[in-house]
Every structure is written in C-alpha cells, then in structure tokens.
Amino acid sequence: MKIAFIGLGVMGYPMAGHLAEAGHEITVYNRTAAKAEAWSGKFGGNRAPTPALAAKDAGAVFACVGDDDDLRAITLGGEGAFGAMLDGALFIDHTTASAEVAIDLDRDAATRGLRFLDAPVSGGQAGAENGTLTVMAGGKEADFNDAKPLISSYAKAVSLMGPVGSGQLTKMVNQICIAGLLQGLSEGLNFAAQAGLDAKAVIDVISKGAAQSWQMDNRGHTMIEDRFDFGFAVDWMKKDLEICLAEAAKNGSDLPVTEIVNGYFAALCERGGGRWDTSSLIRLLRGSA
C-alpha cells in the first residue's frame, strides 16, 4: 500500500520504519526536514516538504506528532493532509492528544469523504523500536479492521475501545495509572536507600511478587543508578497528565494523586529536567533535582 507517515520523533521514526520494512511504499513528512532525510536514507522511502504532498495518493496516512495544535496543523489548512487525501482514505492518528480534537477531526474528515481513527500508543521508545507497542483505538469497526494489519507491523496488541475519542480516553487511563505507580516506586526505592537496604536486591525480590510492574522491571535499576537520559520525557508526561486533568474536570472524575504527581513533574521541568525520563521523580525525594 502507498502510505504517508507524518511526524518522525522518537516514536514515529521507528514506527514508519517498520511499515517500510513490511513492504509498503512510504512517504514521510517531518517538521525538521533533516530527520525526514535521515529516515529516507535509512529505510529507502520518499520524503515530502508538506503534509499535503506526503498524503497525496496515499491509501492510509499515519501521524504521530506532539499535541492538539500540532495535529490540527498537519491535517487542516492549505498544506494539511486532509485536503490532499484520496476519497475514502484512512487517517490513523497515533498522537497522544485530547478526545475533543479526535472528535473534531473525525467530523471534518467525514465531510471530505475520509475516514479517521484515534489510536494512541503505549510502550515508549523501546516498544516502537522493537515493534511491541500497545495501541488503543477509537473509531468504526470496519476502519479499525482495515488499519489493524498495518498497525500490527509495530504493535503486539491492537484493540478497538469504542467510537472515535475512545482511544484517547483509554490512553488517559494508562497515563493516570502510570503517574501514581512511578511516584510509589520512587518513594519505595528512596525508602529502601534511607533504611540502609541494598535497593537492587530489594527490587529483585519484590519484583517477583505483587509489587511487580513494567516500570519496576524496566526502570527500577536505572532509578537506583540515577540514570534518566532516555525513555519517555517528563515534558511529554506533563502534557499528557494535563490532558487527563482537563478531561476529568469535564466528566466529574476526581484525580487527586494525578494532580499531585503532575505538580512533581512540573517541579522537575522547572529544575531543567524536562527531557529526563519520567522515572526521574525520585530525584525530588533525593534532593538532587
């Protein structure tokens, strides 16, 4: 299939690569043209100077950009993808954004004879590179069925959660759960150190019981070693949690822990830690941030 991929960040770059390796003809667009040039050199695909030119004649257009504003910028307007897509083409959005923007763009796409799925992902940079992401989608079942074989080139789990917007709402649940878990892991490891325990030995023991989590397995030892120059950036998590809090204000959910942890992420940003991995929450407890 002829495919366009818009947004070649730490997630989009390898995701687009998996699609190319699956044999699809890929045209990429990235705001920083040098990254698109590097991708094309590595994977052999084409690159375009605008989202519209990338999307021209594509049966499916993928996007993985920063936020609601970025998403609107690459879909709408004279250089946006929607204006150039083929009738009946499918737009698959992997951005972590608001449910509201997904619903708005789906409505706009429908007026143009296009199809739309919101399909945020979980699994981080390593998941994108290894092709083991989890994808939670919102949209029509027929559109999801068309998209699933493509998405499966870089995902181990792809699920339809409901109508458009449901993917984003599910991703919000994911981020709410991770926020509290990261803070708990930070407090536990800091407590272990203060108590004079061998924190690595503690992790090895408790990870075999009820405290086990992906964060513990993948971040526990690096937290102990004070290494955070990788992974999912604090800036991104703060953006995601603000989306969660805004949605909670609409639907009447109480998110007291999420609000507190978001404040901790804001403190890390103020201390220059915006690009650190989210597990750097422990630095606030150590007084090293």
* Strand line-up in the sheet with most strands: 3-2-1-4-5-6
Number of strands: 9
Radius of gyration: 20 Å
Order of helices and strands: EHEHEHEHEHEEHEHEHHHHHH
CATH class of the largest domain equals Alpha Beta
CATH superfamily of the largest domain: NAD(P)-binding Rossmann-like Domain
Can you tell me the overall shape?
A: globular
**In terms of structural class, how would the helical and strand content be classed?**
alpha/beta
- List the uncertain runs: none
CATH architecture of the largest domain: 3-Layer(aba) Sandwich
Major pleated sheet? 6 strands, parallel
Mean pLDDT: 97
CATH third-level topology of the largest domain = Rossmann fold
Alpha-carbon distance between the two ends: 48 Å
